[in-house]
């Protein structure tokens, strides 16, 4: 029976979309990692709580099939702030998150990082004549 569950989860992982803008932070990547760790032995993995496993699978299928989005349609595709889906995706992309993290650093942290570099990291100047 665990072989059937393993195949179901593999099929779900194949269907689940990946968000390349978020790289290692998207739900598809996290799901693949969790399935790999939960089913370390593949089809031979013994499941301690089959009912809980089935509930998780059914919940993930409903999320993947947009069950709740169809059941509870939204009036508008914006949030209370007026930000659209495309703008949210842009804000949450990995490059933008790294830039925001860099901007959050205080002056002291930026200076200490700049001056704590080893001499090998600093490019040499040509000798003046």
From TrEMBL:
The keyword Membrane does not apply. One of its GO terms (cellular component) is mitochondrial nucleoid. InterPro entries: UQCC2. GO terms for biological process: mitochondrial respiratory chain complex III assembly. Keywords: Mitochondrion, Mitochondrion nucleoid, Transit peptide. Its main location: mitochondrion. It is found in: Mitochondrion matrix, Mitochondrion nucleoid. PANTHER family: UBIQUINOL-CYTOCHROME-C REDUCTASE COMPLEX ASSEMBLY FACTOR 2. This is Mitochondrial nucleoid factor 1. The gene is uqcc2.
């Amino acid at each position: 029976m665990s072989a059937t569950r393993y195949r179901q989860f593999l099929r779900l992982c194949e269907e689940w979309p990946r968000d390349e803008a978020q790289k290692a932070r998207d739900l598809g990547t996290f799901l693949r990692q969790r399935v790999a760790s939960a089913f370390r032995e593949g089809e031979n993995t013994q499941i301690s709580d089959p009912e809980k496993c089935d509930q998780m699978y059914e919940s993930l299928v409903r999320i993947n099939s947009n069950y709740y989005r169809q059941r509870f349609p939204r009036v508008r595709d914006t949030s209370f702030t007026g930000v659209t889906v495309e703008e949210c995706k842009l804000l949450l992309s990995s490059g933008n998150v790294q830039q925001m993290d860099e901007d959050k650093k205080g002056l002291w942290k930026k200076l200490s990082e700049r001056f704590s570099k080893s001499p090998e990291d600093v490019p040499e100047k040509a000798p003046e004549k």
